[in-house]
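BUG: 3D viewer hangs when loading the predicted structure for this chain

Environment: internal workstation, default settings.
Expected: structure renders.
Actual: progress bar stalls at 90%.

Input used:
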Amino acid sequence: MFGSNHLYVFQHPALKNANPGNYKVPVTYEMAQQEIAKNNGFDMSSKQSAEEMLLQEDLVDLIPAVEEANTISEELDKKVKFEIVVISPKARGLTHGRTEVCVKMRNLESGYEYIWTRDKFQRRKYLMQEMYQNFVEGEEWKLPDEKDPFTVAPNTEVQIGHVNIYLQSLSYLIELKDSLDVSDVKGKDVGIMDVEIIPCNSKGKELTEADDVFVDDPKDLISASVNFVVKIRSITGLPNMYTDVYCKYDMFLDAESTKTEVIPNTSNPEFKHRKNFSFNPATSQLVDYLSNGVLAVQVWGKYKFKEASQRQKNMNTKQMVMSETLAKGRDLNTNANKTSDPDKVALRFQLIALKKRQERLVVKLSQVQRCVQVAEEHKKVRIPTAVVKQVLNDQNPKRVESAINKIPQDDGAGVPSTDAPQSSMCTLM
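Structure tokens produced before the viewer hung:
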């Protein structure tokens, strides 16, 4: 195959006569594309879902186009290399959508990378072909930077990474304070974000453990007023290549993304971001979102200006690609980057909610035991159901204790009969 639209098939007569069975099916352009994709490590089997079939089509179309773009880059010495990347919605910092085939454009001098959509790459490739054609024909082919398809504007924003915050704790009105890994599109950890999501009242006053607003079942929030505050305090440990860093996210059905302040010239930006969210009344859709959803926070920024080294200036594109390939081979087993396991992150958030629920059950059990103890101390054989319901459902310790103190005052509870066998348990009415 030559470029993205030429295929030449060679059949050796001696080989064909020796194995005629191998030459029954005519070789087509599509077959060649699929074979190249398979040799590049992509699964081209027929047992795939509809989404996987769409991905396969995109891959088959893009692989020869990317090869052509890389060849043109080497011929014109543009010091740029293109690679195919398959990116899931989560890796892009989104909560929904389909996995997409994109193209990563990498500047070989600076090492800076830009992710292009399939359509953006295809449009630029047509301009690359035109430049190359002019080059071959001896015409003026160089273009100013703002029109050059191999060039990206210095002030272009790039997505540095993302953080997925599981909201299950909030569905029980449990505060969330954590330091979470910021992951790039390859899943590599590039920093740590300090975040907080705390229940509050309608005026934004944060609620604490003493307020005891925990609910046993998220469904109890339906039709109630749900208020909380989202805080993004800071990010630490970002690569030093970025500036003008900010975060953005979409909460529930937000029509417009929420953005933090833009922080320049530091790899440890402090945003001190705070935003209150109020839902009155809370719908079943909101409760389901809090119980099962994820708040995806994207981290954006710009690359700092970086001048090429003298060694890089003395190398052409082909030499730089070869040098980079050799360096990757040497570092393959020595530079294992730390990556986040999304399943472990989700499990950690689930454990926070389970721990709080367990603590609540232990408290309720001790309160029921206290009811029985008070009833036996005052020789009561029954406890009114009104007292039991308040002990089980009320979240205010003072009101629970007040209800327990009513047990000795209940004349209808009676005293144990002297003729009846004694029991260590009383009866609940």
